[in-house]
Write a structure and sequence with these properties.
Layout: H1 2-14, H2 17-37, H3 65-76, H4 82-93, H5 99-115, E1 124-129, E2 135-142, E3 151-152, H6 156-173, H7 183-193, H8 208-240, H9 243-248, H10 257-261
Parallel strand pairs: 1-3
Antiparallel strand pairs: 1-2
Helix pairs in contact: 1-2, 3-4, 4-5, 4-7, 6-7, 6-8
Length: about 260
């Protein structure tokens, strides 16, 4: 099972969806066999229920910082700055994140990966510039995302902003047990709405349907061109970089003038 889990993490890193399906089915088969062998499941033919996506619920659990960052990034589905991750976690999970510690978290994750690659289920990693494949400044991502989603081109940050707006609107709509949206959620979405072209901010109120429509319309303008840029850069990264560099960026080396003219 450990070998299969390691292979699944590698397939996730490389965006190999076909391999993911095969490995996932094999892992489920091995897990069922293990449960039967250990007497944990008296019906080996029983179909295992599929988990449903969790709706963000406010929590004050004392999770490690990397797990809290994982929560916020999973909700957004796109890379984000430490400041945004803190705002999202505070709005949907009740606690802000320490942005100073988030800044150093990526370096800790890189050291961990280089000492024991793929030992963890995921890593909080870097995004890469589409031109130099160097780590971008102040943007965090998850290593389990396809490499294309961790590339940043000229249009990518706008695409990420609009995608995040859609994800936050969906998450807000699915919050349960509240007569109205919690104030931190409303404030976060109002800030987003002010920067989405086509959304009418004159009312001063939050309209999730209108926000989604405006964000979707603008996203359609940029998405295809950005996707092409990121796909091409990701292909170059797979050809030129090792696993660690694909997750944390390549090291830019300064070449002296004497060396260049030699």
């Amino acid at each position: 099972m450990q070998q299969l889990q390691h292979a699944i993490r590698q397939a996730l890193t490389h965006g190999d969806n076909a391999q993911l399906g095969t490995l996932g089915e094999e892992l489920r088969r091995v897990q069922r066999a293990w449960e039967v062998l250990c007497g944990l499941d008296s019906n080996p033919d029983r179909v295992q229920p599929q988990p449903t996506p969790a709706t963000p619920q406010p929590t004050r659990d004392n999770l490690p910082l990397r797990d809290q960052a994982h929560q916020a990034l999973t909700l957004l589905t796109v890379p984000a700055s430490p400041k945004l991750l803190s705002q999202v976690h505070e709005a949907f999970f009740a606690t802000p994140l320490n942005t100073a510690r988030l800044t150093t978290l990526r370096r800790d994750e890189e050291r961990s990966f280089r000492s024991a690659p793929y030992a963890r289920a995921y890593y909080v990693c870097s995004t890469l510039t589409s031109d130099l494949l160097a780590p971008t400044r102040a943007l965090l991502a998850l290593s389990t995302w396809p490499l294309e989603r961790r590339i940043v081109g000229p249009l990518t940050q706008r695409v990420h902003f609009l995608t995040a707006a859609l994800r936050l609107a969906d998450a807000a709509e699915h919050l349960s047990g509240e007569p109205e949206l919690p104030q931190p959620v409303q404030l976060l979405l109002l800030r987003y709405s002010q920067n989405v072209h086509g959304y009418d901010t004159r009312t001063g109120t939050l309209d999730l349907t209108a926000l989604r429509q405006a964000a979707t319309a603008e996203l359609e303008i940029h998405a295809d061109e950005d996707a092409q840029t990121c796909t091409e850069a990701a292909q170059r990264a797979r050809e030129q970089l090792g696993d660690a560099e694909q997750n944390f960026g390549s090291t830019l080396r300064v070449v002296s003038r004497r060396h260049r003219t030699a």
